[in-house]
């Protein structure tokens, strides 16, 4: 058998050479497209359920939010383990499924069960974490700008950079660390509320009532004219002019009973870099199962496209690129 194989290879040597060349070309192409990473991702099939609870203590969160969610998802097909954490402002339940369960099928099952969870009034509905793993952080970058405050840099990242990076193929989520999240804050004066015989609930209702757009159908005047009521608040002055109530036909505006100011959300952390004080850090997370080398390259390309659209003096400075780590390990 071996003699015939050798004899045939010599007799049809050009066919053997051609076949060898084809195999080499296929191998090179496969090598270029092979998803190579610096380390294996051994994360199990898991789904995180996050609930923002801004006002309750950890003990109340455990009893009124975390426990009902755990009870509702118990018994799901393929569910292997459930663990949770309850702390001020957050309830997080992690559901771990058996190996081989499709992640998107598991997320669908949990989403279906969460529809039946009964939570206290005022608590937002639970949301699922991104389709990413603990090893999904493939790109870190800083937002720097001469003369810009960390609040301005955070706003630029949240409204200009982050939406564009989330559209990159293979990206599951883009997070912001550090900086100050801008808020328009209404600081109510209780004495003025008493003066006008108003309550906090009156102020909440007025803000909600005066911050929406409504449609009015069409008016036909030979041609159809759309009717729309534009009431979305777009600036601090718009908020200040909201009418809370009226006394004897005289409107009482929000600015008469409260101070409307620019502020920041409660901070639970900060980021420093290069010994220069606080900064704003962005983190790009890869979808589970994607090629980190390829996705990181797409993020780098998108950042080059975003930079010309940023305000003067604002730059994106890469801090960590998974591509560099993978290339170094392969070398």
Any descriptors?
10 helices, 331 residues, 29% strand
Question: What does the model show?
Answer:
It is a single chain. A four-stranded antiparallel sheet has the order 2-3-1-4. The mean pLDDT is 88. α5 (150-165) crosses α9. With 331 residues, it is α+β, with helices and mostly antiparallel strands. The longest helix has 21 residues, at 13-33. A hairpin with a 3-residue loop joins β8 (214-220) and β9. It is elongated and about 110 Å long. The protein is built from ten helices and 14 strands.
Helix content: 25-40%
Order of helices and strands: HHEHEEHEEHEEHHEEHEEEEHEH
**Main sheet properties:** 4 strands, antiparallel
Task: Tell me, briefly, the overall form.
Answer: elongated
> How does the helix and strand content classify structurally?
alpha+beta
SSE topology:
Layout: H1 2-11, H2 13-33, E1 45-53, H3 58-73, E2 79-87, E3 89-97, H4 103-114, E4 127-128, E5 137-145, H5 150-165, E6 171-177, E7 182-188, H6 190-195, H7 200-209, E8 214-220, E9 224-229, H8 236-240, E10 243-247, E11 250-253, E12 258-264, E13 280-286, H9 292-306, E14 314-321, H10 322-330
Antiparallel strand pairs: 1-3, 1-4, 2-3, 5-13, 5-14, 6-13, 7-12, 8-9, 10-11
Helix pairs in contact: 5-9
């Amino acid at each position: 058998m071996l003699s015939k194989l050798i004899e045939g290879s010599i007799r049809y040597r050009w066919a053997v050479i051609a076949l060898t060349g084809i195999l080499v070309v296929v191998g090179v192409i496969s090598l270029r497209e092979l998803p190579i990473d610096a380390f294996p991702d051994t994360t199990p099939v898991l789904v995180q359920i996050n609930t923002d609870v801004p006002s309750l203590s950890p003990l109340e969160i455990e009893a009124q939010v975390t426990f009902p969610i755990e009870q509702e998802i118990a018994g799901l097909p393929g569910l292997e383990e459930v663990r949770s954490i309850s702390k001020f402002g957050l309830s997080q339940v992690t559901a771990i499924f058996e190996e081989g369960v499709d992640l998107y099928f598991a997320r669908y099952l949990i989403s279906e069960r969460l529809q039946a969870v009964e939570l206290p009034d005022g608590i937002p509905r639970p949301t699922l974490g991104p389709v990413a793993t603990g090893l999904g952080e493939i790109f870190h970058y800083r937002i720097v700008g001469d003369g810009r405050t960390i609040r301005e840099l955070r706003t630029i990242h949240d409204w200009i950079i982050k939406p564009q990076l989330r559209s990159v193929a293979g990206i599951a989520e883009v997070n912001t660390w550090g900086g100050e999240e801008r808020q328009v804050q209404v600081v109510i004066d209780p004495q003025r509320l008493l003066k006008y015989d108003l309550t906090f609930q009156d102020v909440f209702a007025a803000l909600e009532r005066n911050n929406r757009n409504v449609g009015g159908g069409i008016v036909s005047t030979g041609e159809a004219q759309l009717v729309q009521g534009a009431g979305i608040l777009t600036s601090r002055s718009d908020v200040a002019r909201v009418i809370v109530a009226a006394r004897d036909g005289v409107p009482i505006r929000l600015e008469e009973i409260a101070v409307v100011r620019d502020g920041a959300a409660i901070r639970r952390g900060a980021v420093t870099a290069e010994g220069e004080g606080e900064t704003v850090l962005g983190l790009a997370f890869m979808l589970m199962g994607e090629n980190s080398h390829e996705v990181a390259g797409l993020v780098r390309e998108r950042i080059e496209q975003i930079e010309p659209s940023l305000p003067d003096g604002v730059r994106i400075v890469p801090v960590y690129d998974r591509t560099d780590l993978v290339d170094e390990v392969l070398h």
